[in-house]
Amino acid sequence: MRSKFELIFIGITIAITLVFFTVIGSMFLIPTFDSFINALFSEQMAFAISLTIYTSVISATLIMICCVPMAYTLARYEFPLKKLFKIIIDLPMALPEIVVGIALLMFLGSNGIGNFLEILGIELVFNTTGIIIAQFFVALPFTVKMLYSTFNYIDPRYEFVSRSLGYSEIATFSNITLPLAKKGLFASGIIAIARCIGTFASVLFVGGGILMKTETLAVSMYLNLSTGDIDLAITAGILLVIISFITIAVMEKYAKESYSSSF
User: What pLDDT, in 10s, does the model give residues 49-85?
Assistant: First the structure.
């Protein structure tokens, strides 16, 4: 028999979850099937999908290349001001995304290094490069956090044994640590891609939100809502919901397996 305390807590959990499901699921009921299909296969939506996938894959790849050594360093090594560095890396997670976008725009634009870059013929804002930079800065802290947890769950004794047998740090990291962390790495990569896909405010500011030029799925939803094209806006939103659902399901599965297999 379940206690009253347990039943109350389960009831609260189910009730709030159903509210979330109802609110988000109501988006799927707005467009008709025909209007959804027409919007899904429109030229604008095809461009938004392709640009989103293109930039997100590049951003996520760069993020993983940077986050693996960063997360391992924070999990294994001690160095001066380590706690401060962790706070700085985590800071974008607590900041509104619009703050990150404005900061990037100011830094990369004419108020920052923009004039110098312009002399060199380099443009980092209001183009695809700007989108990638925005996605990188927004998604990196989340990925570092998850990889940090992954490396923390790996018993360092495995690495000590490898080193005692004469293997180098690089060999130990490549042959012991990374294989043990493979599911966490996979889940982190999925999270990085999903976070890049869902990035909005930073991409809007740094990319410019230009129709059929820097129009990602999130930006497309905003642009079409502002012009009153509800079908295109809702279609973009539905795609983002589906991607997010799949991402969280994958993360829950592989992150949990990664942690449990590390003991």
Answer: 999 999 999 999 999 999 999 999 999 999 999 999 9
Report DSSP state, residue 173: I
Distances (CA, A) of 119 to 29, 123, 133: 51, 10, 20
CA–CA dist 192, 89 (Å, integer): 15
- Give pTM, 2 decimals: 0.88
Note the helical H segments in the chain: 4-25, 33-40, 43-76, 82-94, 97-108, 114-119, 128-152, 157-164, 169-172, 178-180, 182-198, 201-207, 217-227, 230-260
- For residues 126 and 208, the answer to whether their CB atoms sit within 8 Å is yes
What is the per-residue pLDDT across 82-119, written as a single tens digit (0 to 9) for each? Answer: 999 999 999 988 889 999 999 999 999 888 888 888 88
